[in-house]
Amino acid sequence: MKYTSRELKSKKNKNKIFVTAIDLIRKKGYDNVSINEICSLAGFTKGAFYHHFNSKDDLLIQLLKDVDDYYIVEVLPRLEGKTSKEQLIFFIQEFAYCGYGVGVDVVKNLFKSQTNALNDFMNDLDRPFFKILVDIIKTGQEKNVFTDNLSSEELAKYCRTFIWGVFHNWAMEYGAYDIEKKVEMYLNIFVKSLEI
Fold first, then answer.
1. Which is one GO molecular function term here (predicted)?
2. What's residue 168's pLDDT?
3. Beta carbons within 8 Å of 126's beta carbon, 6+ residues apart
4. Which of 2, 10, 34, 108 shows its CA 20 to 30 Å from the CA of 185?
5. Distances 51 to 14, 58, 114, 148 between C-alpha atoms, Å
6. Measuring CA to CA, which residue among 128, 113, 141 is closest to residue 69?
7. How far is Cα 33 from Cα 18, in angstroms, rounded to an integer?
8. Whole-number Cα distances in Å, 52 to 47, 136, 167, 170, 179
């Protein structure tokens, strides 16, 4: 796909606002960062911010879209050659890595904000994140690795509940422990609950 110079500039501006905002949120906390501060530090007007984002919560939706992109570009190719069980473990570990990378305050605000738009996006079953998860489970069911007592979609929802539950606890405990190690500790028990 070829972009015009105007479209490229718009994408670059949106990305600069986004990166500045996420960096500020990591340093100061979501509630302590204003749109004015984001714009000032990024070198844009509030009008430019609102051209790309409807609200500060839209930054969180963009973050989840970036996670989807990460799964398409980075995670999906690295699933090849792994067993279904290894794929599922890797998939969930990578999500822990993403959560740790954005920081506890950002994760906490994913749960706290819960606007309709954010909630709808987090629960969208057509997101690449969810579709990849369903495919891993469906393949595992076809190979008699994972139970078929529930559909692949239901088991994927179960996995999503596990993932969000661990993240929620981590955020509510203010990141008091290493989320990646905690996920690794729980993961084997969790995955056994899916196996035949």
1. DNA binding
2. 94
3. none
4. 108
5. 9, 12, 22, 46
6. 128
7. 13
8. 9, 34, 28, 31, 32
Average pLDDT across each block of 10 residues of the chain; the chain has 196 residues. List them in order: 88 96 90 96 97 94 94 97 97 94 89 83 93 98 97 97 95 94 93 95
Write out the two tokens for 98: 């993403």
Other C-beta atoms closer than 10 Å to the C-beta of 108 total 20
DSSP-derived 3-state class of residue 195: strand
Q: Note whether 90 and 52 are within 8 A (CB).
A: no
Q: Which residues pair with 195 in a beta bridge?
A: 146
* pLDDT for position 109: 86
- To which residue do tokens 């008091």 refer? 176
Range(s) of the domain holding residue 32: 1-53
- Asked if residue 18 lies in contact with residue 9, where contact means CB atoms within 8 angstroms, the answer is no
What is the number of structural domains in the chain?
2
User: In 3D, which of 123, 144, 17, 150 has the Cα closest to residue 64?
Assistant: 123
CB-based burial of residue 126 (10 Å sphere; 0-12 exposed, 13-18 middle, 19+ buried)? exposed
Residue type, 91: F
Exposure letters 42-61 (e unless 16+ CB within 10 A, then b): bebeeebbeebbeebbbbbb
